[in-house]
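Quick one: structure for this chain?
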Amino acid sequence: MDLDGLIKSLVDNSAYINRGRKGFDTEGQEAEGRINYTRGIAGALQNFKDVGASRDCLVIAFAELTFMEQDLAYSEEDDKDVRDSLNKGIQDFVDALRCLDIVKKPPEYQIGEKLFPTYFKFRREGCPWDAYQVACEANKSRIKNILRTPGLNMKEKAVLKERFANMDIGRDAYLELQKAALSTS
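Got it. Here's what it folds into:
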């Protein structure tokens, strides 16, 4: 998958969604707002379907990171709860990308793995519950909370559900990378 093209498309679709939302709130621009919003939502849904189909942890992490950065850029300055949540999610995926870089270097990952407790709460199938796993689980919780928002339309729910499913796909693909790194001698 062309990661640069995907990121550009996510940025563009996020901008259409934002223009659409602003159009809904502007007298006389409702129709244009609806067109922009529909275009952005449809594009974002396709983006996230493609992301999931890639089954690539790097693509999944960058897609989420990009979309959250765009949400943050378009959020209201005084919406502290939303901004705090997005900043936390962004930091989670920045940390996840650091782990993704290390897991691809088995000797380094094997040393780092020893820093994690062996207790089952800190492991999944014998592999450490590291920043990539944490980012996926935290983002699932964030998305689940958004899905509970009253009045959320079905198009937005479809995008959120696709993103939610992608977190399991990313987590499982990353687990396979962990297993491979830890089995290499």
